[in-house]
Amino acid sequence: METTFSAIKADVGSVAGHHVVPEELEESAISVLEEAKGKDIFDYFVTHCGDDLELIITHDKGEDSEEVYEIAWNAFLKATEKAKELGLYGAGQDLLSDAFSGNIKGMGPGIAEMEFKERKSNPVFTFMMDKTEPGAFNLPMYKIFADPFNTAGLVLDPNMHSGFVFEVWDIKESKKINFYCPNDLYDMLALIGAKSRYVIKRVYPKEDNPKATSQEPAAVISTEKLSHIAGEYVGKDDPVAVVRGQSGLPAAGEILEPFTHPELVSGWMKGSHNGPLMPVPVEDATPTRFDGPPRAICLGFQVKDGMLIGPVDSFADPAFDKTREKAHQVSDYMRAHGPFEPHRLPEEEMEYTTLPDVMEKINHRFEDMD
Ligand code: F6R
Ligand code: MG
Ligand code: MG
């Protein structure tokens, strides 16, 4: 059977400041999804990462389904009502429009979804990040699907030996390009290292991977660029990603392994700082230190006949303790730079923050030099 797995997120308010989605908001979203379960959708799971409300929905409507998007929109709307009632900070922040117009894309929420033919067993991982941007997935996705030092299967598993195809988006120019790895590896790295502009959107098994069912992605990442949509700074586009694993695809452990490196990502305070990405269990997705440091959570499900079995809170494993400790050390080191680069983002990336307003204020005081 064909199942669609959709991870949809929005920041519709949190306690205190931009920190954590309270239970009441999750309950509001659940009440809408519960109503749809067994009718328009197969199953759902609601969670949060920091100030982002996360909806995981399974259904048979395919990608870009107006019906499913409307259900998600209504869930966010109901949570927004609750957030307003409780006077929460940033209530309704990511819902950039008052009315649903048929497609949730471009309206604020972030989406990662894929349709796939269910196999005998279907492990699916949902990654959710707060206080960072979609390009934060570039490094881990590269490692999972292209780095044999991370993914033993690229060397050892004949099904994976031919490599993977990466669909990369230039989010500034609205263009896309496919890279066939390992052949195109160096060309791809030349681009995706610039992670604020070139973003991995999907990864596919190569057609000569005998386990590939053509054009079914192994991974998909949300790339909505909230600040571009709204035309001003309205928070970072805290991203989500969905990754399928096992039998011909990377194993669960290969999918999680890249997160043992607390890579530097942009986001953190006012979406304007570089900081370490810290993998945490859901209960520790509470970015309060300088509104951070940026967090990643991961929930591992089995999907069977469209139903969600689990989840396992993947980063609850103490094997990630050392990564967290390293992230604390990197946080101290980066924070010591205060408003100086490279803790603060480079000037071009400050364009969509409140910095231009400050520049405008002092602009008239500049004089020409002789
Ligand atoms: C970062 C984030 C927070 C806010 C900061 C200021 O993504 O959400 O760091 O940018 O708390 O928030 P405002 O401008 O709403 O006072
Ligand atoms: Mg917020
Ligand atoms: Mg957020």
TrEMBL record:
<feature type="binding site" description="in other chain">
    <location>
        <position position="18"/>
    </location>
    <ligand>
        <name>beta-D-fructose 1,6-bisphosphate</name>
    </ligand>
</feature>
<feature type="binding site" description="in other chain">
    <location>
        <position position="352"/>
    </location>
    <ligand>
        <name>beta-D-fructose 1,6-bisphosphate</name>
    </ligand>
</feature>
<feature type="binding site" description="in other chain">
    <location>
        <position position="291"/>
    </location>
    <ligand>
        <name>beta-D-fructose 1,6-bisphosphate</name>
    </ligand>
</feature>
<dbReference type="GO" id="GO:0042132">
    <property type="term" value="F:fructose 1,6-bisphosphate 1-phosphatase activity"/>
</dbReference>
<feature type="binding site">
    <location>
        <position position="11"/>
    </location>
    <ligand>
        <name>Mg(2+) 1</name>
    </ligand>
</feature>
<comment type="subunit">
    <text>Homooctamer; dimer of tetramers.</text>
</comment>
<feature type="active site" description="Proton acceptor; for FBP phosphatase activity">
    <location>
        <position position="11"/>
    </location>
</feature>
<comment type="similarity">
    <text>Belongs to the FBP aldolase/phosphatase family.</text>
</comment>
<feature type="binding site">
    <location>
        <position position="237"/>
    </location>
    <ligand>
        <name>Mg(2+) 3</name>
    </ligand>
</feature>
<feature type="binding site" description="in other chain">
    <location>
        <position position="89"/>
    </location>
    <ligand>
        <name>beta-D-fructose 1,6-bisphosphate</name>
    </ligand>
</feature>
<feature type="binding site">
    <location>
        <position position="18"/>
    </location>
    <ligand>
        <name>dihydroxyacetone phosphate</name>
    </ligand>
</feature>
<dbReference type="GO" id="GO:0004332">
    <property type="term" value="F:fructose-bisphosphate aldolase activity"/>
</dbReference>
<feature type="active site" description="Proton donor/acceptor; for FBP aldolase activity">
    <location>
        <position position="233"/>
    </location>
</feature>
<feature type="binding site">
    <location>
        <position position="238"/>
    </location>
    <ligand>
        <name>Mg(2+) 2</name>
    </ligand>
</feature>
<comment type="function">
    <text>Catalyzes two subsequent steps in gluconeogenesis: the aldol condensation of dihydroxyacetone phosphate (DHAP) and glyceraldehyde-3-phosphate (GA3P) to fructose-1,6-bisphosphate (FBP), and the dephosphorylation of FBP to fructose-6-phosphate (F6P).</text>
</comment>
<dbReference type="InterPro" id="IPR002803">
    <property type="entry name" value="FBPase_V"/>
</dbReference>
<feature type="binding site">
    <location>
        <position position="291"/>
    </location>
    <ligand>
        <name>dihydroxyacetone phosphate</name>
    </ligand>
</feature>
<dbReference type="GO" id="GO:0006094">
    <property type="term" value="P:gluconeogenesis"/>
</dbReference>
<feature type="binding site">
    <location>
        <begin position="246"/>
        <end position="247"/>
    </location>
    <ligand>
        <name>beta-D-fructose 1,6-bisphosphate</name>
    </ligand>
</feature>
<feature type="binding site" description="in other chain">
    <location>
        <begin position="102"/>
        <end position="103"/>
    </location>
    <ligand>
        <name>beta-D-fructose 1,6-bisphosphate</name>
    </ligand>
</feature>
<keyword id="KW-0479">Metal-binding</keyword>
<dbReference type="Pfam" id="PF01950">
    <property type="entry name" value="FBPase_3"/>
</dbReference>
<feature type="binding site">
    <location>
        <position position="131"/>
    </location>
    <ligand>
        <name>dihydroxyacetone phosphate</name>
    </ligand>
</feature>
<feature type="binding site">
    <location>
        <position position="18"/>
    </location>
    <ligand>
        <name>Mg(2+) 1</name>
    </ligand>
</feature>
<dbReference type="GO" id="GO:0000287">
    <property type="term" value="F:magnesium ion binding"/>
</dbReference>
<protein>
    <recommendedName>
        <fullName>Fructose-1,6-bisphosphate aldolase/phosphatase</fullName>
        <ecNumber>3.1.3.11</ecNumber>
        <ecNumber>4.1.2.13</ecNumber>
    </recommendedName>
</protein>
<keyword id="KW-0312">Gluconeogenesis</keyword>
<keyword id="KW-0704">Schiff base</keyword>
<keyword id="KW-0378">Hydrolase</keyword>
<feature type="binding site">
    <location>
        <position position="52"/>
    </location>
    <ligand>
        <name>Mg(2+) 2</name>
    </ligand>
</feature>
<feature type="binding site" description="in other chain">
    <location>
        <position position="131"/>
    </location>
    <ligand>
        <name>beta-D-fructose 1,6-bisphosphate</name>
    </ligand>
</feature>
<feature type="binding site">
    <location>
        <position position="51"/>
    </location>
    <ligand>
        <name>Mg(2+) 2</name>
    </ligand>
</feature>
<comment type="pathway">
    <text>Carbohydrate biosynthesis; gluconeogenesis.</text>
</comment>
<dbReference type="InterPro" id="IPR036076">
    <property type="entry name" value="FBPase_V_sf"/>
</dbReference>
<feature type="binding site">
    <location>
        <position position="238"/>
    </location>
    <ligand>
        <name>Mg(2+) 3</name>
    </ligand>
</feature>
<keyword id="KW-0456">Lyase</keyword>
<feature type="binding site">
    <location>
        <position position="51"/>
    </location>
    <ligand>
        <name>Mg(2+) 1</name>
    </ligand>
</feature>
<feature type="binding site">
    <location>
        <position position="237"/>
    </location>
    <ligand>
        <name>Mg(2+) 4</name>
    </ligand>
</feature>
<feature type="binding site">
    <location>
        <position position="236"/>
    </location>
    <ligand>
        <name>Mg(2+) 3</name>
    </ligand>
</feature>
<feature type="binding site">
    <location>
        <position position="93"/>
    </location>
    <ligand>
        <name>Mg(2+) 1</name>
    </ligand>
</feature>
<feature type="binding site">
    <location>
        <position position="130"/>
    </location>
    <ligand>
        <name>Mg(2+) 2</name>
    </ligand>
</feature>
<keyword id="KW-0119">Carbohydrate metabolism</keyword>
